[in-house]
Amino acid sequence: MSIYLYTCIKLPKRSYPSNIKRIGNKMDSILNPLVGGLLIGLTATAYLLIKGKILGISGILTQLLFTRKRWIPLLFLIGLIIGGGAYGTLTNQTVAFPDDRSPLLLIISGLLVGYGTRLGGGCTSGHGVCGISRLSPRSIVATLTFMLTAIITVALTK
User: Fold this and answer.
1) What is the pLDDT of residue 124?
2) Regions of the chain short of the pLDDT cut 70
3) What is the DSSP string of 25-91?
4) Angstrom distances, CA of residue 28 to CA of 31, 33, 151, 157
5) What is the spatial distance between Cα 135 and Cα 137, in angstroms, rounded to a whole number?
6) What was the pLDDT predicted at 51?
7) Are the C-beta atoms of residues 23 and 113 closer than 8 Å to each other?
8) Which among 106, 124, 107, 104 has a CA at the least distance from the CA of 116?
């Protein structure tokens, strides 16, 4: 089964070297999403209990950049990078990106995303994972807005 990125790039089918044992079935099986969801839920709960704050990447990045207590946000972000890299290596994931992306366009896009997270009072991870689980009306509306905007964008650009 091929996967499409948000950039509408068709990824090649995965092939696994014979010396690496595959973890579970394909991503369309029930095991990987179930385990991933449980780990995200446990992490969000642990962060709320330890720090007393909602888990969201934009909030963690803000804590890292603008507070004196930087250890937990720094360790969390390092863990995201190491965890993603380890998963990609263990499952032989590859992502093909086009070379014709303008660096200026990428910078402008990043700034717009950052502005949007400040304007929306958080990012998709904070609203979608933690806000909805707390039945926050603000987070439900924000997540529906994110999803509707993404659906419309894909429909217009395809």
Assistant:
1) 81
2) 1-28, 97-98
3) S-TTSSHHHHHHHHHHHHHHHHHHHHHSS---HHHHHHHHHH-S--HHHHHHHHHHHHHHHHHHHHT
4) 9, 8, 21, 26
5) 6
6) 81
7) no
8) 124
CB 2 within 8 A of CB 11: yes
Let me know: does 143 contact 125? Beta carbons within 8 Å.
no
Distances in whole angstroms, Cα of residue 127 to Cα of each of 65, 102, 116, 146: 21, 30, 13, 10
15: its two tokens:
């092939």
Tokens 């720094």 sit on residue = 74
The pLDDT value given to residue 5:
34
Q: 129, 48 in Cβ contact below 8 A? A: no
Residue 154 has which token pair?
A: 């894909």
Instruction: Using CA atoms of 146, 66, 78, 53 in order, give the dihedral in degrees to the nearest 10.
Output: -60
Whether the model clears a pTM of 0.70, i.e. scores above it, the answer is: no
Residue 149 parent element (H or E): helix 137-157
